[in-house]
Amino acid sequence: MMKKSGKVVLHKSPLPEGVRVGNVMRIRGVVPDNAGRFFVNLLCSEGPEAEYALHFNPRLDKSEVVFNTMEQGRWGREERGQGIPFQRGQPFDVLIITTEDGFKAVVGDSEYYHFRHRIPPANVRLLEVGGDLQLDSVKVF
């Protein structure tokens, strides 16, 4: 397990071809009873200077889900979904679907949020998942 700015990275999937329209990333797991926050990041490279094309950050401690990017070491403007579709002690199934103009987050059976691309998805090279969660599986298709 790798530490990243104080957060434990539980899974990394290299994406050498980037992501294209129609690509889906599926993350399944369980939110622990004492969960604070977890994250799904789509990164443009490895290492501390990496740009984030997507930072998907459910914050159970604040009952919100934040979406953002990081470019040139700076976080962009945070966007928030409506409510929080995760519950402590419950399993979850998240799909991140690459669309023409953004990443669509689907939680369970419901479309949750559409985050417009700020960085071209073709620049993505790595998917990482971590934080306060029990991870069951990560698939990219």
TrEMBL record:
Galectin that binds lactose and a related range of sugars. May be involved in the assembly of adherens junctions. The lineage of its organism: Eukaryota, Metazoa, Chordata, Craniata, Vertebrata. One of its GO terms (molecular function) is carbohydrate binding. It holds the Pfam family Gal-bind_lectin. Keywords: Lectin, Repeat. It comes from the Eukaryota. Residues 11-141 form the Galectin domain. This is Galectin. Gene3D superfamilies: 2.60.120.200.
